[in-house]
């Protein structure tokens, strides 16, 4: 059994205090190295995914299309990437890395702090709810899906 360490990291955060009602439903996600990365008000598996790269879409701001998720991401800014899409377009991604092992865990379409963009994208297979376990979708990209 993996050892689950206390959630004091989450509880001690001072910004973005969740309300009492949302606290009960908050989910905690870890990098595969065991570092705490994300606390969010919904399971990631229930969130929509991008068709281009299967990244999990986290809405960071309210709009007419939907309400923003309540979340807090523990990550540091990584290298910006330019991705070439099959449609011929280009997309800039500003990576957010795990502060401990520096693996990329998420990205935003614009530079700046977390939540500066309308959406945050979580890389598929990057996070797990069980500290010390590899997420079940970590190798999804290597399997051809119909
Ligand atoms: Zn890590």
Automatic annotation (TrEMBL):
In this chain the STEEP1 domain maps to 21-136
What's in the GO CC field? cytoplasm
Please list the GO biological process terms of this entry: endoplasmic reticulum membrane organization; endoplasmic reticulum to Golgi vesicle-mediated transport
Q: Which PANTHER family match?
A: STING ER EXIT PROTEIN, UPF0428 PROTEIN CXORF56
In the record, the note on similarity to other proteins reads: Belongs to the STEEP1 family.
Q: Mind telling me what this protein is named? A: STEEP1 domain-containing protein
